[in-house]
Structures are given as C-alpha cells and as structure tokens.
Amino acid sequence: MKNKHGVMHNLVLGMMGFALLMISDWLIGACGKGNSSNGIVQSNWAKAGAWRYEAAVLIAGVAVFLVYVGMKEMIRQMKLTRRKRDPWSIRAAQVFELGGTATIVASLFLRVKGVILPILYKKLYSTSLMGADMLAVVDDVFFYISIPFYVLSILMIVCTSVPYMYQVWNGRLRIPKWFILINPMVFWVLGWILRLFKNYLITDFTACMGSFGLMMMCWCILQHVAHIPERD
Fold first, then answer.
1. Alpha-carbon Rg for the chain in angstroms
2. Residue 52 in 3-state DSSP?
3. For residue range 2-57, what is the model confidence (pLDDT) as tens digits?
4. Which of 58-67, 81-90, 201-210 has the highest mean pLDDT?
5. Do 118 and 59 meet the contact criterion of CB atoms below 8 Å apart?
6. How many CA atoms lie within 13 A of 134 on its CB side?
7. How many CB atoms neighbour CB 175 within 10 A?
C-alpha cells in the first residue's frame, strides 16, 4: 500500500472526530438522575444548563471536519476491498459509501436537532403554558424534522454496518472475523438493551453508543490497513 502512514493518519483523525461526537451526544442525551420520559420529551430538560447544548453544537461543528476525513478514507478502503467477480462485494462498497456520506451529513444535523427540542422545552417551561400544551408543541416541532432524522439515522447505522460485516465475513478486510461484531448497529442495539436496566448512569452513557460504534468500526478498518504490506 502506498502512503500507508497517511491513510492511518486519516483514520486516526476520523476516530478523534467520532470521539468528539460521543462527547456532543453525551452533553445532549445525558439527562441525569430522576429523569422521566414522556414520548420524546425528557423531564430533566427543564433544568439542564443551556451551556451544555451550546457546547454540544460547537463540538459537533469541529468534529464534522475530522469525521469527513476519516469517513472518506473508510469509504476508499471499502472500495479497495471489493472484487469484480463478487457483485455483492461491489454493492457492499456502494452501500457503505451511501451510509458514509449520510454519516458526514448527519454529524452536525443530528446534533442540531438534538439541541432544538430541549431548548424549546426549556423556553416553554418558563411560560404559563400547561404541561400538555408544551408536550404538544415539542411533538409538533419534531414531526417536521422527523423524516430526515429517521432516514439519516438508518443510513448512518445500517448502511455502514451491513456492508462492513459482509466484507469482514468474506475475508475482504484483514481483521479477525469476530470483529464483525464491532460495528454501529451492534452497539446501537446494545444501547437499547442497556436502557432496560433503568440505571441513569448506564442510560446516560447509551446516548453516545452510535458514535462509539462508528469510532470502533473506524478502529477496525485501521487494523486492516495496519496489516497491509507497505510498498514504495
């Protein structure tokens, strides 16, 4: 592989970007002790510090540039693993590119969405509106942004994980086959399972499981590159 160190450098930058997204996700999604959910509304939104949401957007704004570098490199590596005799391998690379592009776009969009609803609820909470009215307003606002939210989330999680798992299973990536479990979709499902424990420390950590899964998948592809012989 030519410029192996440059490739690994790009992937490390991508991991740093996803780590920053984890921090942003935690600032947005961690609700703390005594929180209760009413649909998409969290009761502790009303007393959360506004600085958290400002910091979350600023951090995501920086992270998106690092994510772009890392994800573009991941897409390139997935394209290099495809085989012309295996049409599914070619499709896997194409789907991964779709999911990777959605991840770059979603890196900032989803965090901006994540701060709009809590800030709106905090502002409404300080008015004379009834609780049911506040919930209705927040639900209505979410309705208008829900379609791109769900579409980008699915593309980001599923369309990166499934092609990656296919290439690992078929030995296209030079990593152990059990690495097939290290992908965003597995961590996303694990997050939902952990929330069943109803422990606020665990629940707060699950807010960043998606970004954690993307960071670990980037690490796996870094291991693949590390095992490729370097050539001039």
1. 19
2. helix
3. 788 899 999 999 999 999 999 999 999 888 888 888 777 887 887 888 889 999 99
4. 58-67
5. no
6. 22
7. 21
Distance CA 19, CA 50 (A): 22
Is the pLDDT higher at 224 or at 200?
Answer: 224
End-to-end, the C-alpha distance of the chain in Å comes to 8
d(CA 19, CA 22): 5
How buried is 163 (Cβ within 10 angstroms: 0-12 exposed, 13-18 middle, 19+ buried)? Answer: buried
pTM given for the model: 0.89
Using one digit for the tens of pLDDT, what is the confidence trace for 113-158?
888 888 888 778 777 666 677 778 888 888 888 888 889 889 999 9
Residue partners of 179: CB distance under 8 A and separation at least 6: 168, 173, 220, 223
Residue pair 7/225 in contact (Cβ under 8 Å)? The answer is yes
Helices (H), the chain: 4-29, 50-80, 87-125, 131-169, 184-194, 200-205, 209-226
